[in-house]
Amino acid sequence: MWYSAVLAVIIILFGLVVYGLTAFTLLSQVDNSLSQTAKDIINTSQMRRQLDVLFLLIPQQEVNRFSASRVYVQVWRANGTWVANSENLGDYKASLDPAGLTRTHGSSGDVVIDNARLRVVTEPIVTTNGQLLGYVQAASSLDQVDLAKNALLLVLVTGGLAAVLLAAMVGWLSANRALRPLDTITQTALQITRADDLSRRIPLAGVPQDEVGRLAQAFNDTLERLERLFNAQRRFLADVSHELRTPLTTIRGNVDLLRRMGGADATSLDAIQSEAERMSRLVGDLLLLAQSDAGTLPLARNPVELDTLLLEVFREAQVLAGGVVLQIGEIDQAVVNGDRDRLKQLLLNLVSNAIKFTPEGGRVTLGLARTAGNWARLVVTDTGVGIPPAELPFIFERFYRIDKARTRAAGGAGLGLAIAQRIAQVHGGRIEASSAGAGGSTFCVWLPLAPERVVIEAVKLTDTRPNPALPARVVKRRG
Ligand code: ADP
Predict the structure, then answer these.
(1) Among residues 425, 478, 418, 416, which one has the least CA distance to residue 452?
(2) pTM of the full predicted structure?
C-alpha cells in the first residue's frame, strides 16, 4: 500500500509537470505565430503625412493574406474605432479582445466568441518617433491546442491509474508470496509449542534462499541445537539418577545385612562408608558443574606458582601410582592468576585418570612449559590404554566413559574431565587431548600466564638524601 501510494504521488507530480510544460509550450507557439502575423501586416503598411495628419495605409489584401490559414485579423485606430477586418471575420465589428486596445505594448489573451475559444494577440502600430497610431489584432482558434491538451490529459490519467493499479497488484502478489513461508514458520513454531515436540522442522523444499529462506534455515538450526541441548539435559538427569542409585543400593543392602546380623560387621561398614564417600564426591562434582554453568562458582584470583603446584600433585599422586612409574619431565617456572585449589583439582583429575588407565609397569609423565603468546602448558602423558580417535571428541562430556563397566569399577562417574575442562575455561584456558591409539594418551592444559609485575625499588644508601644522579634498580618479580 505504501509503495503504491508513493508511486501515485510521483505519477501525479510527474503528470502535472508534463501537462503544464506542454500546455505552456503549445500556447507560446500560437502566441509567437500570431504576433509574427500582426507584425508582418504592420511592416507592410505605409504612413503618409498630409497637413499635419498622419495617414496609415494598409492594403486590404494584406489583412486578408492569412485568412486561408484561419487567422482572423482586425485593424483599429488608436482611439478605438474600427478600421478593417480580414474577410473571414465578415462584418464582425466588435474588437476580438477589447482589453488589448487599451495597452500601448503588445499583449495576448484568451476570449470566447460564439462558443469558440480564441487566442488573440494585439500588436500596437507605433511611428518611429513613438506616436501610437492604432492596433493590429490577430486571432486563431484554440481548438487544436485544446485537442492536444485533452489527449495528453487522457493518456496521463489512464496511464497513471493503470500503472498504480498494476504496481499495487504486483506488490500485493509478491508480498503474499514472500510472506507465505513466514506463515509456515509461525505454524511450525505453534505446533512445537502445542505438541512439545522439538524434532519438527520447517520444510525448506521450494523456499527460495532469500531473507525468509535464511530465516527458516536459522530457525531450523536453532531447533536442532535446542533439541540437542534438551536431549543432553534428559540424558544428564538419567545419568545422575543412575549414578546416585548405585551407591544407595549398596548402602541399603549393607544396612539390611547389618540389621539381620544384629551387629556391626567391618566389611559392611567399610562398604557403606566408601559408597557414601563416592556419593558425596559425586554430589560435590555435580554442584561444582552446576555452579560453573550458572556462573556462581566461587573462584579465587591469586597468583599460583604452577611449578610448585605440579610438584605437590606429583607427591600426592605417588600414593595412587601403585605399579605405575610416575615421573617429572621438563619443568619451567610459570605463574598464573587463579584458584589454587581448583587448579590442583584439575591436575589431580588428569593425573589420576592417567594412572587409572595405565597398566602396571607403564609410565605417567608430568611437564610444565612456558610457550609463545604468554601461555603455560601443563602436560600429562601416559603410556596406558589410549583413547580411540572416534571417542576423543566426547571424553569431555558429562558422564561420558569409554568402557563403562571398567571405569565404574575404578570409581569414576565420567565427570572428571568435564570438571577439568570447566576449571581450565573459567581460568581463560583450555584442555586438548590426543592419543596415539594403544600407545597412551596426552592431555595438554593451556592457561594464560599472569602478567609480570615490575617493581621499582630505590637503591638504599647510607646517605639518606636523594641523589638524582643514581639510577633506580629495576627488579622483575614473578606474579
Ligand atoms: P572418569 O571419572 O570415569 O575417569 P573422566 O571424565 O575423567 O571420567 O574420563 C572420561 C573417560 O575418558 C574415561 O572413562 C576414560 O574412558 C577416558 N579417559 C580419560 N583419561 C584417560 C586416559 N589418560 N587414558 C585413557 N582413557 C582416558
Answers:
(1) 478
(2) 0.58
